[in-house]
Design brief:
The chain is an alpha/beta fold and 164 residues long. Helix content is 16%, strand content 42%. Strands 3, 5, 7, 9, 10, 12, 13, 15, 16 and 17 form a 10-stranded mixed sheet that branches. A 7-stranded mixed sheet has the order 1-2-4-6-8-11-14.
């Protein structure tokens, strides 16, 4: 299912959908995804394995194993379980994640979120109650270099562990 923001704004007067989206925004730390227009949703009952590609933003409520590429933002909800590498503009992790994250902008681990792996980003936010085990590189040039190497999975770091 692909939800288009402009379709919802142009004709639908479904208040329950608005309330549901508002509740989801609150669970995702109050932040809305980028205004790319499209949000790909992987539902709570979904289990995917392989490469997932989205031309817009992506929200993951279920389980994914493999590679995730989003031209927009990527948000993992509290019930999500992901074992993959993520490449996106920004990422918000509220569930369980294992793998490497390479984003051009902001990486955020919200309360209750857990990341086991490496993060390459311009800005990193770890909320109180979140767990991060791995290495972080906060350098825009490194993020661009990693984004140009498809499938480059770095070995997991045994060094850094942060529990806020």
């Amino acid at each position: 299912m692909i939800w288009r923001r402009e379709d919802a704004e142009s004709g639908s007067d479904d208040r329950s959908e608005d309330r549901r989206e508002s509740r989801h925004d609150e669970r995702m730390g109050g932040r809305r995804m980028g205004d790319s227009g499209e949000v790909t949703v992987i539902g709570q009952a979904a289990k995917l394995e392989g490469t997932v590609v989205s031309a817009g933003s992506m929200r993951i409520d279920g389980q994914v194993k493999g590679q995730i590429n989003a031209d927009g933002d990527c948000a993992l909800s509290p019930q999500s379980q992901v074992d993959a590498d993520i490449r996106a503009q920004n990422v918000s992790i509220a569930g369980r994640f294992k793998g490497n994250i390479m984003v051009k902008g902001r990486a955020e681990i919200t309360r209750g979120g857990r990341v086991d792996g490496n993060i390459t980003c311009k800005s990193l936010v770890i909320e109180e109650g979140a767990i991060f085990q791995g290495q972080s590189v906060m350098d825009q040039q490194a993020a661009q270099a990693n984004a140009q190497q498809p499938g480059a999975r770095q070995p997991e770091a045994a060094g850094e562990r942060a529990k806020v």
